[in-house]
Design a protein that fits this description.
Pfam families: Ribosomal_L4. This is Large ribosomal subunit protein uL4. InterPro entries: Ribosomal_uL4, Ribosomal_uL4-like, Ribosomal_uL4_dom_sf. Keywords: Ribonucleoprotein, Ribosomal protein, RNA-binding, rRNA-binding. This protein is α/β, with parallel strands linked by helices. It has two domains: 2-44 and 98-204, Ribosomal protein L4/L1 (Ribosomal Protein L4, Chain: A, 3-Layer(aba) Sandwich); 50-90, no CATH class. It has seven helices and six strands; from the N terminus they run ββαααβαβαβαβα. The chain has a six-stranded mixed sheet with strand order 2-1-3-6-4-5. α2 (29-43) packs across α3 and α4 crosses α5 (160-166). It is elongated, with a radius of gyration of 27 Å.
């Protein structure tokens, strides 16, 4: 599978052969859904908590005698049914992360890449380097390329000027190849890969 390579100025820069085992799969929605759910669950803070009846500072003395009053049987005032009492079955601090096999995670990334190729929303760019970190100039280049919502994956390191210029443009994400992930790929309309990123992906999945 061949794709044309472009530059930041919109000029042609040859073509590249994409590995069919990485970019030519038939996308499976179930795999992508499992991966996105795993990512979002893993990053969830899980710091929500409430005070249960053992945490509230209320008297533990029995409110009134058990029998003879005609009222319901009650014990401590910290019970959940009383105003100021502890909450029953409230959230506790915990991790929301769950397991997902490493092979499934790798396969989901391949299917996300293949989905972009199938939808013709994958762009291969020669390199992402700028002489100056000017947001306005980069935004004009993106407008000419039709990039209004895109994830840009560079090599092992993001060029300092390019990263500085791109960080103020809405709906444009820039990541090094180590940070590529299914959720960020799917949440943007287009995926932009550099030559170095493609080489790194093919080396990673060999």
């Amino acid at each position: 599978m061949k794709l044309d390579i472009t530059t930041l100025d919109g000029a042609g820069a040859g073509s590249v052969d994409l590995d069919e085992t990485i970019f030519g799969l038939e996308p499976r929605v179930d795999l992508l859904q499992r991966m996105v759910r795993w990512q979002l669950a893993k990053r969830q803070a899980g710091t929500h908590a409430v005070k249960n009846r053992s945490d509230v500072n209320r008297t533990r003395k029995k409110l009134y005698k058990q029998k003879g009053t005609g009222n319901a049987r009650h014990g401590a005032a910290s019970a959940p049914q009383f105003r100021g009492g502890g909450r029953a079955f409230g959230p506790v601090v915990r991790s929301h992360a769950h397991d997902l096999p490493k092979k499934v995670r790798a396969l989901a990334l391949k299917h996300a890449l293949s989905a972009k190729v199938k939808d013709s929303t994958l762009i291969v760019i020669d390199d992402v380097k700028l002489a100056e970190g000017k947001t306005k100039a980069l935004a004009e280049r993106f407008e000419k390329m039709g990039l209004s919502s895109a994830l840009i994956i560079s090599g092992t390191e993001v060029d300092v000027n390019f990263g500085r210029a791109a960080r103020n443009i809405p709906q444009i994400d820039v990541l090094p190849i180590q940070g590529i992930n299914v959720y960020d790929i799917l949440r943007r309309d287009k995926l932009v890969l550099t030559r170095a990123a493609i080489d790194a992906l093919e080396a990673r999945f060999k």
